[in-house]
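Please fill in the sequence for the structure shown.

STRUCTURE ENCODING:
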């Protein structure tokens, strides 16, 4: 069986093939990548609202990391 093999019951007298194609059309409308992106965005916003101090620490750590990366790349370029 291939990837499209879905074991679903066929309600209301429809054949399994008709039911699977209907389910595939409905699920095809829901782009999994978009749903995952919105879920991640929602979680990050919720986390930022619930933990503002942690967001500040995270931003400071990112700034320190970027500063260190800049210094490291500068030292590498200067040594070549």
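FILLED IN BY: designer on duty
SEQUENCE:
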């Amino acid at each position: 069986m291939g990837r499209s093999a879905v074991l679903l019951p066929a309600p209301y007298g429809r054949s399994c093939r008709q039911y699977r194609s209907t389910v595939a059309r409905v699920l095809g409308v829901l782009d999994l990548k978009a749903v995952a992106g919105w879920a991640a965005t929602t979680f990050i916003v919720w986390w930022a609202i619930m933990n503002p101090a942690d967001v500040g620490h995270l931003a400071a750590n990112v700034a320190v990391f970027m500063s260190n990366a800049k210094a490291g790349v500068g030292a590498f370029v200067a040594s070549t």
